[in-house]
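Example noted here:
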Amino acid sequence: MNISKPQQRTLHALAQGGRIELERDDNGRIISADCLTRDGWALTDCTVAVFQSLKRKRLIASQDGGPYRITRLGLANLRAQLDNRVGAKAW
């Protein structure tokens, strides 16, 4: 499955314990998607388009109205990295 770099970054943050919280307008439409790491930092790569793409591919899901988290399918499609914070050139 083809996954773009912003989608990969978002999935890595979710795999490490992060979550996606949505903000909706009065009609129920999504205004913004905020990806928060387990440390509480916001990930700037996570946009509404990235969120919708990950949800469409069923790589993320929400349970009981909670924040969106990575699914088993998302973990299976995630490419392994030594450390998400360090580029390949640093090693």
About this structure: The beta strands are 19-24, 30-36, 42-43, 60-61, 69-70. The longest helix spans residues 5-15. Residues 3 and 9 are 10 Å apart (CA to CA). The longest strand covers residues 30-36.
